[in-house]
Structures are given as C-alpha cells and as structure tokens.
Automatic annotation (TrEMBL):
Signal peptide: none annotated. Gene3D superfamilies: CBS-domain, Glucose-6-phosphate isomerase like protein, domain 1. The keyword Nucleus does not apply. Residues 219-279, 285-336 form the CBS domain. It holds the Pfam family SIS. Keywords: CBS domain, Repeat. This is SIS domain-containing protein. It comes from Sphingobium olei. InterPro entries: CBS_dom, CBS_dom_sf, GutQ/KpsF_isomerases, KdsD/KpsF-type, SIS_dom, SIS_dom_sf, SIS_Kpsf.
Amino acid sequence: MSISASKIIPFGNGGHIVESACRSLSIAASGLNALESRFADREFSATFLRVVGVIMNVRGRVIVTGIGKSGIVARKMTATLTSTGTPAIFLHPADAGHGDLGMITPDDVVLMLSHSGESTELGPIIQYCKRFAIPLAAMTAREQSTVALAADMCMLMPDVEEACPNALAPTTSTTVQMAFGDALAIALMEMRGFSADDFHKFHPNGRLGAQLVKVRELMAAGSDVPSVREDASLLDATIEMTRARLGGTAVVDRNGRLIGAFTDGDLRRTVTGKQNLTESVGRFMTAAPLAIGPEELASEALRLMHEKNIMLLFVCDNGKLVGAVHMHDLLHAGVA
C-alpha cells in the first residue's frame, strides 16, 4: 500500500513526533494502571486465583490460543509460562479445525485470548472444550461476548483506550494482555518455588544462561587447582604456579583448608626484594584470602573480582579448598 506524498507530515523539528510517542506511552501506562486496579475487584481477584489454582493442579499443559495480535501475545505468553516452570503450548486457531484440536487432552486447560471475544476462528476450540469438558479460561474485554459467556473462568480485562489515533490498531489492549500474561506466569512461578537454578536448566545457552552458571561449573578442580603447604619454599610455590597457569597458588594447612594465597604479583615483589627462594611461602602469602562457595553464581564471583581487583578466586566448601576460578574463564563463558 502506498501513501501519497501529500499526506506525509514534514518532520520539522520532530517535536510533534516526540509528543505522539509520549502520548502513546501515557495511554499504555493508563491501561496498565487500569489492569492493576482490576485486582481490587473481589470477583476479578477470585477468578484469577481460581485460574492459578487450576493451572497449578492440571496434570497436562496450558493450551494458549488466540488469533491476530492476541495470537502473537499468546505465543509470547506460552514462551514465558514454559520457561518459568509451567508446561504450555500454543494452539493456532486456524489449524485447530484441521487436526490440531487433537493436541488438547482431558488433562489440559485452555487459556483463550480475545480482546473482542467474538473471533470466529475460536469457535471450534470452544466447541471442543465444551464437548470434552476441557477447562476453558478466557481473557477478554467484553463481558457479554461469545468467549466470555462460554468460558468456565473469565478474566475481564479493562476496556482500555487504544493508542492508535484511529482507535483501530490493537496497541494498549495488547500491552495489557502481555502484562497480565507476565503477572500470571510470575504468580505461578512463585507458587511453584521456581528457583534461579531451575531457570538455568531451561536457559542453558546464551547470555541469560551464562548469568545463571554456578561457580562449580567453571572452576578448576582436583589436580588442576594449584596449592602448596604453608612450609613450602618460594621455589616450590613458583613451580606450582607455573604448572597450573592460573597466576597464583593457594596455600593450605594439613587439613586442606585455605589459609593464604600467593600470586604472580607476590612473586615479583619477593624477587624484587632479593629474597632467598628457599624461604617459606607462608612468610609472603596473603593471609585469609577472599574465597567463594561452589554453589554461588559465577556472576557473583566476577563481581567480587572486579570489586577487589583480583584475577584469581579460590573456591572453598566449609573452609576446604575445592577449586579455583580465573576471571578469563568467566569472561570466556559469557559471564558479565
């Protein structure tokens, strides 16, 4: 579709364009405020709690469906639910009547999104739910709509003003749907006690996964961890540091407990002072060095390194040395 040049408004200083953007955001904010206010309504809150309860107790999955812009929101909602511990799948209404209704089982619950509540494409799904007693939860802004009246649980969305100047393009209404989907997913997530560790299981790759990696997953362990006893010579400590190539060595007592650290920097300062390499490393180590637990997030290890301006961090479990992690390993893994 082409737009005639006569209808294009000149940019000028762009002030009116910025005003338009701010107006859209203001209208969207009003929609979100209206949604939040809906929870003050006892019936709405009761319905929301009932939906959460049904989803928590369902043996199968949440079948999320919607058409048009609501369908796009439904896809996003499906992804958020799935990634936060609630098994969900998107069902496209156009495919439902061509065999995909078979993906709905008696153990599932259907979550239907429709702002108007009158999308004809949703008809076969509604009929299927009624025929086989599949719980149907709906999100719509029209109380007397087909979808609202057919639903077992209807969450009545606020009838918001669209940001579109022609009041045609779904804008504020889809923002409200999206926000409600997030609120539902987070409520379910908290009900399930879904932890950061659980989140990492579902997000092992990419930047998000890197932020959830535990120290134990990136640390050097076993014989790869440089360590010497307190009475070891400076020469022995230097050999151990050279072997492990981590830029330092831990100093441990007879029980394997971390009592000190000796780094490349310490060695340079010692050599500059013309110390005898047969002297005990215990005289020149940094006592009670900073350490971290193996179950801590790698991002926390990196934060400590930046804060203390160190490159090597030893890992201890109940005081005993179990590993070592270098800043380069954290950065290489994408931890930030």
